[in-house]
Specification:
The structure holds two protein chains of two kinds. Chain A is about 35% helix and about 25% strand. By secondary structure, chain A is α/β, with parallel strands linked by helices. Chain B has twelve helices and five strands. In chain B, strands 1, 2, 3, 4 and 5 form a five-stranded mixed β-sheet that branches. Classes of the chains: A alpha/beta, B alpha/beta. At the A-B interface, α3, α4 and α6 of A face α1, α2 and α3 of B.
Chain lengths: ~260, ~375
């Protein structure tokens, strides 16, 4: 078994004293597509924002290749941030820059690559996400699905070891969403990148996930870990079965088993 | 900020027409810059018959390394020079398979950004459209205001009082401060020239007339444009970006009645009040200066009451009422016209303040002419 690339240990998240996630631990292995699941408001995005160092945990540690991202400052923090790339839910591309400029930004800031190399590398990233030829377009000139793909290309600008995707298929039609899933699988296979994906789209989960964890907002903990098909068929937790079988919540009441 | 500590080295060897590029270490984003330049120098310095990329000593590579390989391969292919590689690990092959020769030759699609001439044309047409939009908006606003006055219960008074508090009560400190300082500065500037004629007491006339007839309403309106006109544009603009305006429209609630009328009524109510305070504090500022040069307050106020006619105050207040209407109206209009994207709200805020101030000055000029002909 290889050494885990991310290790979350006894992690607790809280906003203004209200605990959102209570003392959870899990590991992500290198090269896998790891999906964080859960209903709306269960803290999926909160967990992701802690894992990428935007927030500090109320307790516990988040280790990226052994370094705690929450406690890291200065050079160590930069070293950790170089290992990760993030695609935000809305894409968060800079609207005043072309797709090429969006992707080149990190290269210009952090490498000494010649201009020609950056241009070539940007074209390669765009080719990888099937956006060849769109380098001079502004984000507002391309569709929502294309913006998300461009955001993945930007996240990959410095070839990070880990890519975090926040709800990649939110707001996309099923075909575009399936294209994006195929892209994630292809990138995981060819580049060996580890993916941490937050989503609650069932078709996406079955298609991309090597392993999932599921959060439940009622207990504020992980209620299931494993392969999606196994959880659907064999979970003894009512909430997990309900989630995977898309049952309405009225059918089950009370606390999860 | 280039990062030092190279993780790989590119070394070139030229023997019998073959240029061999030996790569050692990890060819990644950090170290590829130096390797790229070394390769360019080696190619420029020799005239090889064959080029070989030797990766026997290379531990791994990332996208930047692949870019260097692809660049060398495609360039030599274009020059019809044989290019070979050795020692590239099988596991890296899928990376290269993504970029076969010619894969990156996709021509750039033209952006929908337009030429200079078209930009000029669009600007001119947008000015015309903007004027038309302002006219439509003014008509709609007047109609809605008339309807609101006929049916006062249709006005959302709670929201109106909230705006009165924000644009009026909370603006009081800045109005008081600016008013006091304007009176102070005016009096200070006027004392020296007046002293040359022994007419220092006339400073009271100068301060009171210029403040009550002109500067009070004008400065209050400019502060309102900067403070509240911009806030209206930003608030409504953000609602536009969040599709809240669309939500109102589809609910059948006209945004002008729901959002604009409340703000316009509030602004029209508070501007004359704020102007009175501005006048008062400016006169106080003038008094402080006069006192400091030996005129007791009684004499100062006596002179002020002689200088001012009763009609001066209402004429100033009427102007400020119109200014309030213009500032709030243009602020709300710019907010409703907000486009999409991160910069849209900023743009409409800027446009609200600029248009507000221009309209204030223009209408002030108009008022001067009208008041002059009316003999005020």
């Amino acid at each position: 078994m290889p050494e885990p690339i991310i290790r979350v240990e006894n992690f607790t998240a809280a906003y203004d004293g209200t605990v959102v996630i209570d003392d959870i631990s899990f590991e992500v292995n290198p090269g896998e597509v790891f999906v964080i699941l859960g209903g709306s408001g269960c803290g999926k995005s909160t967990l992701l924002k802690h894992m990428i160092g935007l927030y500090k945990p109320a307790a516990g540690k988040i280790l990226i290749e052994g370094d705690d991202i929450a406690g890291a400052e200065g050079g160590l923090r930069m070293k950790i941030l170089r290992k990760i790339g993030v695609m935000y839910q809305s894409g968060a591309l800079f609207g005043s820059m072309t797709l090429m400029q969006n992707i080149r930004l990190a290269m210009e800031e952090f490498t000494d690559l010649p201009d020609e190399a950056m241009t070539l590398l940007t074209k390669m990233k765009l080719k990888l996400v099937s956006l060849a030829g769109f380098e001079n377009h502004f984000p507002s000139e391309v569709s929502g699905g294309m913006q998300k793909r461009a955001a993945i290309a930007r996240a990959m600008a410095l070839d990070p070891r880990i890519l975090f995707l926040d709800e990649p298929s939110a707001g996309l039609d099923p075909v575009t969403s399936a294209d994006l899933d195929a892209l994630i699988k292809r990138l995981a296979r060819t580049l060996g990148v580890t993916f941490v994906v937050v989503t609650h789209e069932l078709p996406s989960i079955y298609s991309i996930a090597d392993r999932v964890i599921m959060l439940d907002k009622r207990v504020k903990k992980i209620v299931a870990t494993g392969k999606p098909a196994d959880l659907r068929d064999h979970s003894d937790n009512a909430f997990v079965r309900q989630f995977f079988n898309r049952e309405a919540s009225a059918q089950t009441s009370g606390e999860p088993a | 900020m280039p990062v030092a500590n190279a993780t790989s080295v590119l070394r070139a060897e030229f023997t019998a027409g073959t240029l061999t590029l030996f790569v050692e270490g990890r060819l990644d984003t950090i170290s590829t810059g130096a390797a790229w330049r070394a390769a360019e120098t080696a190619l420029a310095g020799h005239r090889p018959d064959t080029v070989v990329f030797d990766a026997t000593g290379m531990t791994s590579m990332d996208g930047a390394g692949v870019a260097l390989y692809v660049r060398l391969r495609d360039r030599l292919l274009a020059e019809n020079l044989p290019f070979g590689s050795r020692g590239i690990a099988e596991s890296l092959k899928p990376l290269f398979d993504e970029f076969p020769p010619g894969a990156l030759d996709t021509p750039s699609r033209p952006s929908t950004q337009v030429s200079f001439v078209e930009t000029v044309g669009r600007s001119v047409s947008s000015v015309v459209k903007d004027a038309a939009a302002q006219l439509v908006f003014t008509g709609e606003l007047i109609a809605t205001l008339v309807r609101a006055l006929a049916h006062p219960r249709s006005v959302r008074w709670k929201d109106t009082f909230r705006v009165v508090e924000q644009a009026g009560v909370m603006a009081f400190p800045i109005i008081a401060l600016i008013g006091f300082l304007i009176g102070l500065i005016l009096a200070f500037q006027a004392v020296t020239p007046m002293r040359m004629f022994g007419a220092e007491i006339m400073v009271a006339d100068l301060v009171s007339l210029s403040v009550v007839k002109e500067l009070g309403p004008l400065m209050t309106a400019i502060i309102l444009a900067g403070r509240s006109g911009s806030a209206f544009a930003a608030e409504i603009g953000t609602m536009r970006v969040n599709e809240e305006i669309n939500a109102l429209t589809t609910m059948g609630i006209p945004p002008v009645r729901f959002l604009v009328v409340t703000r316009v009524l509030a602004a029209v109510a508070v501007t004359p009040l704020l102007t009175i305070f501005m006048d008062l504090f400016a006169l106080l500022g003038g008094m402080v200066v006069m006192w400091s040069i030996g005129f007791p307050p009684t004499i100062y106020w006596n002179e002020v009451s002689h200088a001012l006619q009763f009609s001066d105050l209402p004429s100033g207040l009427f102007k400020s009422l119109v200014f309030g209407l213009l500032v709030a109206g243009i602020g709300c209009l710019r907010g409703l016209q907000t486009g999409t994207g991160a910069s849209a709200v900023g743009e409409s805020t800027t446009r609200a303040v600029v248009a507000g101030i221009v309209l204030i000055i223009l209408s002030d000029g108009l008022f001067s002419v009208v008041y002059y002909s009316l003999g005020f």
